Amino acid sequence: MFKRANYVMLSLIKPSSNCRIMEEFQEEFQNNDMEYDNDDMTDTEDLSEGIDSCTLEPALTNGEEFVRCGRYQFKTAAYVDEDKNAFTFPRYIRREDAVIEDVIRDSALPFLPAKSLVRFKTICKGWNEWISRPLFAHRQAYSFRGMSGLFSQLSNGDPSFISLNRMVYGIPKPPLNFLPEPVQIISTCNGLLFSQGHDDDNAYYICNPATKDWKRLPKPSLYHVSGPAAVLAFEPSRRIGVEYFLVRAVDLVYQPVIQFEVYSSTEGSWKVSDSIYYYDKEILIHGSVGFYMKGITYWEISPGKALAFDLKEDLCGVQPLPSCSWPRGVLTEMHGELCYVRAYRQGNECKIDIYGDIDMKLKRTIHLNPPDAGESSWGFQALPCLNSELLIILVGKRIYSYHVKDQKLALINSAGNNDMRYLPYVNSLVSLSC
């Protein structure tokens, strides 16, 4: 114990200097403690008095600066770097040892597509280890959401990938050859892909085409006659772990009824929903390219009508579409809103109509003049897309991207086909096991 502290050092300094001060400060008090033993305790002053209401007030005594705390005075001695005032808090604190490599690694890499990141692994051992970490893959899946290209496939044919930019986006070739059997692509969502095997078993697979990570799903309980009308639902989040759902809309045999069956990656099993949709007219649910957005899956089942299923509420219903929607349009998301995009030819002019709002009213019409628009009277249609400012259209055998804001039309592929199934893809590192 000690009667009175002789001095205190107060400063705003670097952490390394602060450690040195604290060591000197502690040594001073230890020396003071050794000068007093238990016999002197009766003569010591009570230092607790006035401490609870202590306020620091600068004062001058004999020309020297002190800080008054209650009825005690403490002399201050501050280390000041670069002529800075120790009593003025800096406007910002700069990390002096930060280098550009660390800034890029922490703040830029998660926003890049998978193909670019695979290339960056070769820069150095440190980057290879950093990009290979499961936590980084989780951050990248959450940060990068841009559309990278399209998967295309004919019925029972081999799948192919159409990149929007071959230098930036890509997957290992040939696509999906890492799966145990040839498959038919059914649905994609935020970097994950759902497919069905061609063998008699009709196995279901969820995979990431960029990382070759895949998983076989258990068999569902509801029987379907033809190819499944299924939608993959996956929303990257900040929470550690990957949670996805697969929603099947099953048209019951000899009954005008559609039931829903949901697979949950968290539960690892299927569950038949209590929600049932009854219809009085023939619908085309099988083969319909489904769409997922904000917890709801959609299937276009007839002109002017889409079947919707809410995963959270376990409810189904009908989403109205433009009466002229069938069959050359697609559901998509633009600026956070569910929209319907329809492409058609009117005379010698090509048009794209964009519908939105709850009642799916016409919001915008885009006039296009592709160089090969007159080559085919059929084959002008909108393809699925993800970017709010990007539309994908098929004109004959050519696939174009149209940037809505810049009003620019760009050719991305010349091997299109009306009979192909096209699905959008995000070049993500998302892992099925994290």
Describe the fold and architecture.
InterPro entries: At3g26010-like, Beta-prop_At3g26010-like, F-box-like_dom_sf. It comes from Liquidambar formosana (Formosan gum). This is F-box protein At3g26010-like beta-propeller domain-containing protein. The protein has helices at about 15-35, 100-105, 115-120, 125-130, 135-145; strands at about 55-60, 65-70, 70-75, 150-155, 160-165, 185-190, 190-195, 205-210, 215, 230-235, 245-250, 255-265, 270-280, 290-295, 295-300, 305-310, 315-320, 330-335, 335-345, 350-355, 360-370, 380-385, 390-395, 400-405, 410-415, 420-425. The chain is mainly beta and about 425 residues long. Among the domains are: about 1-95, no CATH class; about 140-325, no CATH class. The protein has a four-stranded antiparallel β-sheet with strand order 6-7-8-9, with no helix packed on it. It has a four-stranded antiparallel β-sheet with strand order 10-11-12-13, with no helix packed on it. The protein has a four-stranded antiparallel β-sheet with strand order 14-15-16-17, with no helix packed on it. It is globular, with a radius of gyration of 33 Å. It starts with 14 loop residues before the first helix and ends in a 9-residue tail after the last strand.
